Amino acid sequence: MYAAVKTQLSQAIENLVVGPGLDETTQIQPVVSKKQQMSILQHLATAKAEGATILSGTTPKDQEGYYIAPSIITDIAPHARILKDEVFGPVIALIPFKDADEAIKLANDTEYGLAASLWTHNLNYTMDMVPKIAAGTVWVNSHVPLDPAMPFGGVKQSGIGREFGKTSVESFTETKSVCIAH
Fold this sequence. Notes:
The chain is an alpha/beta fold. The chain contains five helices and seven strands, in the order H-H-E-E-E-H-E-E-H-E-E-H. The chain has helices spanning 2-15, 34-49, 100-108, 123-129, 165-170, and strands spanning 53-56, 71-74, 91-93, 112-113, 115-118, 137-140, 155-156. The strands form three sheets. It has a three-stranded mixed β-sheet, sandwiched between helices. A two-stranded antiparallel sheet has the order 4-7. The chain has a two-stranded parallel ribbon with strand order 5-6. Strand 5, helix 4 (123-129) and strand 6 form a beta-alpha-beta unit. The longest helix is centred in the first third of the chain and has 16 residues, at 34-49.
């Protein structure tokens, strides 16, 4: 299955449209700053130096902006830095695993836990796996949809508290407890 996923993902990133955020055909927009662009490029360079293979799509030519080609990283050493850091860019680490327990172990083997995605056709499997994933948000069969009615935030070193939803309003609320003996 790993080889099939790798092939399909590679084909998918080749067809992604990278471009300006205001262009309706754009699927991958530039990152927020030169500093973030350089950080992502450094993560990719470090992964390659540690022996990983980088499969990348294309970036637009002759356009101003901090573009990063969508990239898949394969052949990754178990303790490679790319598996331990938050990259915040169009990068996916593709790692084969034997079973669900190994997948959970790999997913949770980091000090971060902002979000994760789980891809499956089996709802029972989903309901078993989601509680085991140490992340503030788990998307199933999708990635990065944000709903303002749903709390969003990380666990571990990915932060405390939540944005969006009822819980975000509570962080701006000062409650008062009053006890009256009458």
